[in-house]
Amino acid sequence: MDLDRIRIGSAPDSWGVWFPDDPQQTPWQRFLDEVAEAGYHWIELGPYGYLPTDPARLRDELEGRRLTVSAGTVFTALHRGPAVWDATWEHVAKVASLTAAMGARHLVVIPEFWRDPVTGERTDPEQLSPHQFRDLAEGTERLGREVRERYGLTVVVHPHADTHLATEEHVTRFLDATDPAAVSLCLDTGHYAYCGGDSVRLIKTYGERLGYLHLKQVDPAILAEVRRDGTPFGPAVASGVMCEPPRGVPDLPPVLAAAQGLGVDLFAIVEQDMYPCPPDQPLPIATRTRRYLRSCGA
């Protein structure tokens, strides 16, 4: 199948990058060199401050490697209500400004974890109260409208393991409660499978809300152990729960075919969570993954 509506890219996450600055992570220059070498032309910014935040410098670095930004990313805790709005917007505005300056059109918004992704320490109740859910939905709508108005970006909300937006029930409830004109969906196939969801069914049911894709797979055997033991997301990643395609689930060709069938242009950004990872591990995986996706028609 010719997936001519799907634009493939990658992200710092596939090089083991979770934080703006961490000695365990791949230096940003090496990431840019290697993501281009692996055959990708689209990238995400990753955590704000990992790549240069001066637009002119970043543009030069990208142009020299024939790379273009597809999106920026922010974490938000909008379920905590209006009291967190000012601090949230201060951070979002920085990321959105840089994202727009790079010519991108999307801002990926990830809800805050309810337990620390590295230590597993519980920082919030696992389930939201009705009032907290309303704050999450209304706050995200407000964010979507203001980001579009001020920066011309579309907010795409990313369901994520160990957050309050993770399972099929969470996602469908959230989509039903939010305005499609303000809030679109970033479907991460790996996180959705990790939390028991069916990506193809979600695309076929809520396709008009899909604005962005992250391509990722989970190892079913490791996932079963993670679920059995209640392992937090960080240690689960360290155990290899997110794996190289096509070794895991979901099967990506049906996902890509369903997305192509929507008849709209979509970014599909490869993300294989690998924090921490040896410095020489990401490039061969990224190269093989790009080759695999080409064999799928993307």
TrEMBL record:
InterPro entries: IolE/XylAMocC-like, Xyl_isomerase-like_sf, Xyl_isomerase-like_TIM-brl
Transmembrane regions listed in the UniProt entry: none
A GO MF label: isomerase activity
Keywords: Isomerase
One Pfam family recorded for the sequence: AP_endonuc_2
Domain Xylose isomerase-like TIM barrel: residue ranges: 32-294
Domain of life where this protein originates: Bacteria
Name used for this protein in its record: Sugar phosphate isomerase/epimerase
Organism the protein comes from: Streptomyces cheonanensis
Classification of source organism: Bacteria, Bacillati, Actinomycetota, Actinomycetes, Kitasatosporales
